[in-house]
Design goal:
Helices cover 23% and strands 7% of the residues. By secondary structure, the protein is of the alpha+beta class. The chain has a two-stranded antiparallel sheet with strand order 1-2.
């Protein structure tokens, strides 16, 4: 069964980390990360990988 983090990425939902005592994160790490903050949860394939692997384009 996929982890909650993985499902959030697949469904493009934000990652919400709550501060202790409500959640389990220190106040410095209690943040909300939205898919639009980066690149919509997509993986970038290095150009070097596509140079040597014809299956990756």
């Amino acid at each position: 069964m996929p982890c909650g983090f993985c499902l959030g990425r697949r469904w493009k939902e934000p990652i919400v980390r709550k501060q202790y005592p409500v959640g389990s994160f220190h106040k410095n790490f209690a943040v909300t990360i939205n898919p639009t903050d980066g690149n919509d949860w997509t993986w970038a394939i290095p150009e070097r990988e596509s140079d040597y692997n014809a299956d990756v384009k």
